From TrEMBL:
It comes from Evansella tamaricis. The keyword Transferase does not apply. The keyword Nucleotide-binding applies. Keywords: ATP-binding, Nucleotide-binding, Transport. This is ATP-binding cassette domain-containing protein.
Amino acid sequence: MNVIEVEGLRKEFKSYSSRSGLKGAFRDLFTRNYKTLRAVDDISLHVKQGEMVGYIGENGAGKSTTIKMLTGILTPTAGNVTVNGMNPHKEREKFVRTIGVVFGQRSQLWWDIAVQESFRLLKKVYKVSDEEYETHMKEVIRTLEIEPLLDKPVRKLSLGQRMRCELAAALIHNPPLLFLDEPTIGLDVLVKMKIRGFLKEINRKYKTTILLTTHDLADIEALCDRVVLLDEGKIIYDGRLDELQKNWVEGKQVHFEFQHPVDKPALEEISREYPVIWRQGERVNQWVATIDGEDDTVSKLMSVVMLHHAISDVKLNKVSTEEIIRNIYEEGIKHG
Ligand SMILES: Nc1ncnc2c1ncn2[C@@H]1O[C@H](COP(=O)(O)OP(=O)(O)OP(=O)(O)O)[C@@H](O)[C@H]1O
């Protein structure tokens, strides 16, 4: 069964642009110029019950706008959205009881009251019975280790403590579908690991479907078999994370540190026989070659580079997911 069904979804934002100068300002009084930005551009997406999907893309790619449409906060300009069998915008009241939402940058807890009071209010809002609350939330509170925080006002919590409480709050009604927008932003590694462990657990136990946006690819690697990659409002990849790794670059990466400044055309010239992409490294005179080929291509490339330029260091790495995604943003999908 599909929990999320999206066809041809689009969201446009209109913004006014002012004309320059006094004359322009005068003309603006009568007719305004406006620009249209397509934040989400005809996307189609199907998510089955129990899937954990990573929804990723650069800043401004359209991730939050999509989530806002899927949760009924924004109305689409065009397209169809069905989530948990409903139209999120039209059947708002019934719909919100079937989803949980965490926006890492915003709080759904009341700032000045104790965490457990917020939980109690949300329990009423979602019409959760005492019995259900007891059995389900006890477990959530124990797993997220928030028992000692329950009588504290939210404003006194650290970010990591608050985020764990936010997650618990989103789960009060044990929703079958969870939207998480940057749930681990700014958290330390230990809290991140705790949250990841917890999400895996509820997914296993309740088959909770999770759509996760994050800039932390370690979150995705730990949780999601499937990634949907968004670029300028369009889906440019939808598939398994390991396929993305395999398809995009099987290869390796070589970090060269040269003794003298070297430029990209020179490197491209000497390596033009090989399937290699060059980019400047973080250090002075450092260049990174991403090689899409067999092991002997790597050694051939290394010897040709060393033949032409004096190097002070060289390091061979496997391409990380982060690098693959960055390459995709820069170069587009080339393989598969
Ligand atoms: N209410 C709005 N009015 C006008 N433009 C908007 C509005 N909300 C978002 N945008 C624009 O739409 C585009 C997509 O924004 P969105 O917030 O969905 O991106 P994102 O992928 O979530 O980015 P980030 O990773 O930075 O959160 C951006 O160019 C943004 O400036």
